[in-house]
Amino acid sequence: MPRTILLTGVSGFIAKRIAYDLLTQGDSVRGTLRSLNRGDEVRAAMGDLPDEALDRLTFVQADLTSDAGWDAAMAGVDAVMHTASPFPLENPKDESIVIKPAVEGTERVLKAAQAAGVTRVIITSSMEAIMHGVKSSPLSDSDWSDPSAATAVAYTRSKIFAEKAAWAFAEKHPEMEITVINPGLVCGIPMDNTMGSSVSIIKRILSGKDPMVPDFMLPVVDVEDVSACHLGALNNPASIGNRYICADGFLSMPDMAAHLADSFPDRKIAQRIAPKWLVSVFALFDKQLAVVKNMIGLKMSLTNAAATRDLGVTFVPAREAILRTAWFLDSQGRA
């Protein structure tokens, strides 16, 4: 039966893809926006969908930092997909700027859902809540990041604390049926030119801005698979009460650079590995490097077996995902 799904932060990189896939499978989508002025942008991003599908896409104004609008947003919906959360590329001076809206926003969405009698909620967390300060190899869905780990930054803590707040809420309110999806670095083809912060990493490699490449690893996933994980969770009751790693695997920055250099031979893509001491020096002036400097040299792996089993997702290879992003950026003249 067709359902009405409340999708928070519908203008986001991930959320636009989820909206497209929900509409394609016949559901209705009510998307939250901080400003309704972005509604036309979201509609335009739906591309080749017929008018009948676009008629099932509506918007409501709501902000994670305010109670206003959430009662109306929840009225009559069958489930909630909570994707909205701040994603800074730089570590802010005041961590509460990132952590507070992530935690309070998650709690606000869950409270509004419960008050409206909406019990089914899919939450977008992150591999950030799984991969820091953990010695497991491979990383699994049961692993939790240590917020005090040397590699953890404000964004890491925002995802840990927001996800823990969701599980704490579910424990107090057992009628709430929660599933959490934990994506890695989200690559692939954006629905439009409004791209996620993660895409900027591929853009930076393509640009040839850096003379050397820092040697750290990131878990990579295609945006299509992130959406597929959310829809798979919604469609399979067995996912309730579980969290899922949503990534194909880890790639190092040198591996990414080498793969992109092979695919774009006309671009001057750096492939020399930057020594750790040099990264530490540059990190004093480069806020993006400051976020990852403590990850230099760490080797990590993961298993996505649970997502494949329960959510029915066969992941796009990580190298293919970054290449799709690069092709998009190149075709749009964005890198």
UniProtKB/TrEMBL annotation:
InterPro entries: Epimerase_deHydtase (IPR001509), NAD(P)-bd_dom_sf (IPR036291), NAD(P)_dehydrat-like (IPR050425). Residues 5-241 form the NAD-dependent epimerase/dehydratase domain. Keywords: Oxidoreductase. The keyword Oxidoreductase applies. SUPFAM superfamilies: NAD(P)-binding Rossmann-fold domains (SSF51735). Gene3D superfamilies: NAD(P)-binding Rossmann-like Domain. Belongs to the NAD(P)-dependent epimerase/dehydratase family. Dihydroflavonol-4-reductase subfamily. This is Aldehyde reductase.
